[in-house]
Amino acid sequence: TQAPGRDSVMRPRIVKTPEEGKKHYVLAASDLFELDPTGKKEATRVGLSVNGFDAKRGRAFRIDSFQDDPEVQCLEFGMEQKVVERMKLPPTWKQLFDARLLVSDDGRWLVVCRGQKVGIASLSVIDWENKKVIKEVTLYAKATALSFSPDEKRILVGLHNRSVCEFDFEFLKK
Predict the structure, then answer these.
(1) How far apart are CA 159 and CA 87, in angstroms?
(2) CA distance linking residue 110 with residue 63, whole number of Å
(3) Residue 93 CA to chain centroid, in angstroms?
(4) How wide is the angle at C-alpha 52 spanned by C-alphas 47 and 56, nearest 5°?
(5) Gap between the Cα atoms of 99 and 101, Å rounded
(6) E strands, 1-148, where?
(7) How big is the chain by its Cα radius of gyration, in Å?
(8) Which residues on neighbouring strands pair with residue 26, listed in sequence order?
(9) How far is CA 101 from CA 64, 93, 144, in A?
């Protein structure tokens, strides 16, 4: 399925394949789209300028790091971009670039991979329920991909230097 008004060479960052009969979503070029699994209709944009999403709960997340007080914003799906929750971030999160965000299946944990400066990125685990950054790990290469393992026990980070880092998610949550 091609996103409406988009160049066909655009590569989606995150594709969430749900259980049978559930909706399909893709995050491409920072916009969130609901896909028609039959391929008969164009994808429908359900979010703008987001970094990650939680399809189970119908919410998207945006990291706003270009204001005086950076924050994570939780938005309802839809073009209205209604912010339903916020979490203030430390000043070190100012002016980030190329942030990727995953939401755990239970919706409690956010995993963020973000660029800090050329060639350096960091992996952060956020306890969304308690609005707290739990752990930060420095990566000495630009991150290009972020994913949970199917059992959600590990986090995999693809790096620009073609290596993959694997992290124990349980360890990072402590």
Answers:
(1) 27
(2) 11
(3) 15
(4) 80
(5) 7
(6) 14-16, 24-28, 31-35, 44-47, 52-54, 59-64, 71-76, 83-88, 97-103, 109-117, 120-127, 132-139, 143-148
(7) 16
(8) 15, 33
(9) 13, 14, 12
Say whether pLDDT at 21 is over 80.
no
DSSP category for residue 171: H
Q: What gap in Å lies between CA 43 and CA 162, rounded to an integer?
A: 31
- Give the C-alpha separation, 171 to 174, whole Å: 6
Q: How far apart are the first and last CA of the chain?
A: 40
What is the 8-class DSSP label of residue 38?
A: T
- Which has more confidence, 93 or 152? 152
Q: What is the mean pLDDT of residues 64-71?
A: 84
* 114, 63 Cβ separation under 8 angstroms: yes
CA distances from 109 to 58, 126, 141 (A): 16, 6, 24
The pair of three-digit structure tokens given for residue 69, joined into one six-digit string? 């007080």
The reply to whether the predicted model has a pTM over 0.90 is no
